[in-house]
Amino acid sequence: MKVAMRMKWYVAEKAKGEEELRRLQEPAADFEGKLAEAEERAWASEEWARAAEQARIAAEEKARSLDEEAEHVIKAFQTSLAFEEAALSRMN
Hints:
The chain is an all-alpha fold. It is 96% helix and 0% strand. The chain has one domain. The N and C termini lie far apart (130 Å). 0% of the residues are buried. Residues 21-69 form a coiled coil.
């Protein structure tokens, strides 16, 4: 008789434990989902930051290129016949 009562008690405790485990697993699953979402957002943010940095570098390179091109155009004009004629006409 004692064994049967103990067995019932163990079965009841096991059921309680399983129910408690299920109850705790739900928030854990929610937290895991939220963590995965946060990791995805962090990754996307890092990707965006890398893309922004690449765009900044490309813009700086383009600006340098345009500055160099402008210098070449100015030098080419300064060595041209039209520049000499304009300079001579101002001197007169």
